[in-house]
């Protein structure tokens, strides 16, 4: 039985709504996603509004721009609202000896993110004058998995060793340094906008 126009628009709309929700969850503008994916902003806008259905090639580029696989974008990896990120398959970023693996996918409405940070000797997560990285009311809990780190938050220095954990207001200026001679790893959980008072 042929697909009706209404059914096609509904299908297009589902993909478009997901692309828009994921883009907004990553705090990306249409132009940002266009630059990351190589898909024009007008085409992305049409996809998000459900006016057109992306080809597999275009969908794959959009997925890559969102740091997802095509299967993740189309929810082929999900089973009853469960999303599994396999070991080593998280979204990765690297900058000046600091590498990050995001263990949580950028799902719409998600209120917490989990990531693993690896710091080479002498590496840091940011500069002393960095602005707050997270939205007002956010809290972060970090656990040192290996090595030793120094957490600088709101002008104070805290030394943390393997097995130590810390919870702090993540909307305050903060960064982490590895001033040791060996690498350091920590896991961070950021809960957005939960703090009151």
Describe the structure.
It contains five helices and nine strands, in the order H-H-H-H-H-E-E-E-E-E-E-E-E-E. Strands 1-2-3-9-4-7 form a six-stranded antiparallel beta sheet, with no helix packed on it. A three-stranded antiparallel beta sheet has the order 6-5-8, with no helix packed on it. It folds into two domains: 5-73, lambda repressor-like DNA-binding domains (434 Repressor (Amino-terminal Domain), Orthogonal Bundle), CATH 1.10.260.40; 91-191, Jelly Rolls (Sandwich), CATH 2.60.120. The termini are far apart. The chain has helices spanning 5-25, 30-37, 41-48, 56-65, 70-73, and strands spanning 91-95, 98-102, 112-119, 139-146, 148-153, 156-161, 165-169, 174-177, 184-191. Mean pLDDT is 81; it is low at 1-11. Helix 2 (30-37) crosses helix 4 (56-65). It has 197 residues and is an alpha+beta fold.
């Amino acid at each position: 039985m042929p697909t009706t126009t209404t059914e096609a628009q509904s299908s297009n709309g589902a993909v478009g709504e997901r692309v828009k929700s994921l883009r907004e969850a990553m705090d990306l503008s249409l132009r940002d996603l266009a630059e990351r994916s190589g898909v024009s902003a007008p085409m992305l806008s049409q996809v998000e509004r459900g006016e057109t259905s992306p080809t597999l090639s275009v969908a794959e580029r959009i997925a890559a721009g969102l740091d997802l696989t095509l299967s993740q974008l189309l929810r082929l990896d999900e089973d009853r609202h469960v999303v599994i990120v396999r070991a080593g398959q998280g979204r990765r970023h690297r900058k000046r000896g600091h590498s990050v693996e995001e263990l949580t996918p950028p799902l719409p409405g998600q209120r917490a993110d989990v990531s693993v940070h690896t710091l080479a000797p002498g590496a840091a997560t940011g500069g002393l004058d960095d602005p707050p990285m997270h939205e007002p009311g956010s809290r972060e809990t970090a656990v040192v998995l290996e090595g030793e780190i120094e957490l600088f938050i709101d002008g104070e220095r805290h030394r943390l060793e393997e097995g130590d954990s810390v919870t702090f207001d993540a909307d305050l200026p903060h960064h982490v340094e590895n001033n040791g001679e060996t690498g350091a790893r920590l896991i961070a959980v950021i809960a957005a906008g939960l703090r009151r008072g």
